[in-house]
C-alpha cells in the first residue's frame, strides 16, 4: 500500500535575509504567466530581485541560486530545465525568463515553471487547515497548515502523470515533487520538505 506522504516533497525555500525574490517588471506583471502558457516567440518573462534594497545589497551573492522563488512558484536554471523538458509532465509549461540581480546584471539562463492546472489531492479528514474557505480567486481555497495526501485521489493517477504538480485548493499552491525525480531540485535556493514534516518546518 502506497504511503504518499513519504513519497512526496514540497519544493520550498529557507527564509533568510540573503534570499532573492522574483518580482516581475511592469510588462511581465500584465501577463498571466503563473497560470497560462504564453504565446511562443514572445519576449521572455523578466524579473528583478524584489528583496534587494540599497541597504541590503551586500547580503546577496554575485552568483544567484539555481532555483529562485516567486511566492511558491519557481524559476530554474538551464541544467534543471533541460532535465525537466525531457520528462512529460502534465500541465507544466517551461517559459523563458530573465533575472536581473541586485547589481543590475542580467541572467538569461532561467525558466519559469507555469502550471496551467493544479492537482487537489490533500486529505480534508487528516490535514490541519482553517475550516472557512477563502473566495475571490475564481475558485475555493483553504489555508492549510499541515498536509496529508489523499490516497484515493492519487491511486487513480499514473505515477508518470504526478511526478511534479502544483497543489490545488490552497492559498499557497506549493509545488510537490515525487521522490523519483526529487534530486533535480536539490539545488541552491531550494529545500525539499517531506509532506509529513511540512507543518513542523513552517509552523514550529
Protein model, in words:
With 204 residues, this protein is an alpha+beta fold. The protein contains five helices and twelve strands. 12% of the residues lie in helices and 28% in strands. The model has no long low-confidence stretch (mean pLDDT 95).
Structural class: alpha+beta
Helix content: 10-25%
The total count of helices amounts to: 5
Mass-distribution shape:
globular
Supply Rg.
Answer: 17 Å
* Total separate domains: 2
Strand content: 25-35%
H-E string: HEEHEEEHEEEEHEEEH
Average of per-residue pLDDT values: 95
| Major sheet: arrangement of strands | 2-3-6-7-5-4
Number of E strands: 12
* Biggest sheet statistics: 6 strands, mixed
Q: Low-confidence parts lasting 5 or more residues at pLDDT below 50? A: none
Separation of the first and last Cα atoms = 30 Å
Amino acid at each position: 500500500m502506497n504511503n504518499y506522504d513519504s513519497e512526496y516533497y514540497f519544493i520550498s525555500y529557507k527564509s533568510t535575509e540573503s534570499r532573492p525574490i522574483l518580482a516581475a517588471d511592469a510588462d511581465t506583471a500584465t501577463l498571466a504567466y503563473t497560470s497560462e502558457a504564453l504565446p511562443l516567440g514572445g519576449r521572455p518573462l523578466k524579473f528583478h530581485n524584489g528583496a534587494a534594497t540599497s541597504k541590503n545589497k551586500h547580503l546577496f551573492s554575485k552568483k544567484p541560486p539555481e532555483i529562485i522563488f516567486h511566492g511558491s512558484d519557481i524559476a530554474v536554471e538551464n541544467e534543471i530545465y533541460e532535465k525537466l523538458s525531457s520528462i512529460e509532465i502534465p500541465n507544466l509549461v517551461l517559459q523563458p525568463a530573465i533575472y536581473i540581480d541586485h547589481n543590475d546584471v542580467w541572467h538569461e539562463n532561467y525558466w519559469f515553471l507555469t502550471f496551467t492546472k493544479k492537482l487537489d489531492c490533500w486529505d480534508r479528514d487528516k490535514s490541519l487547515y482553517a475550516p472557512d474557505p477563502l473566495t475571490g480567486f475564481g475558485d475555493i481555497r483553504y489555508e492549510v497548515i499541515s498536509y496529508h495526501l489523499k490516497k484515493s485521489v492519487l491511486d487513480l493517477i499514473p505515477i508518470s502523470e504526478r511526478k511534479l504538480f502544483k497543489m490545488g485548493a490552497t492559498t499557497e499552491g506549493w509545488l510537490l515533487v515525487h521522490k523519483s525525480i526529487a534530486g533535480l531540485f536539490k539545488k541552491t535556493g531550494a529545500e525539499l520538505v517531506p509532506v509529513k514534516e511540512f507543518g513542523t518546518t513552517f509552523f514550529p
